[in-house]
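Hey, resending since the last one bounced:
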Amino acid sequence: MKAIWNNTVVAESNDTIVVEGNHYFPPQSVKKDLLKDSSTHTHCPWKGEASYYTIQAGGQENKDAAWYYPNPKEAAKQIKGYVAFWRGVKVEQS
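The C-alpha cells again:
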C-alpha cells in the first residue's frame, strides 16, 4: 500500500494493518522527514489516545493528516506506533 499526498509518497508498505477501514502503516515505512508533530490528540473508547502529525510536502502543509497510537489500549496493541492517514491523503495499492 502507498499513502500519497501532494504527489508525494508519504508511506509505503506491504504490511499495513487494517482497522475500521483505515490502513495503519508500520513506523519504519513512513517518511518521518515529511511529518511534523502536532499538539492535537483525540480519544477512542477502545483504542485509546491518538496523536497526530502534520504532513509537509511540496511546500504545503496538511494539518493533522496522519495519526497514531503511541500507547494504545490492549484491544489495539497491534497498531502501536503505526501511522494512518486521512484529510485528502490517498491510500492505494502499490
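Residues 2-92 form a domain with the Metal Binding Protein, Guanine Nucleotide Exchange Factor; Chain A fold (CATH 2.170.150.40).

Sorry for the duplicate.
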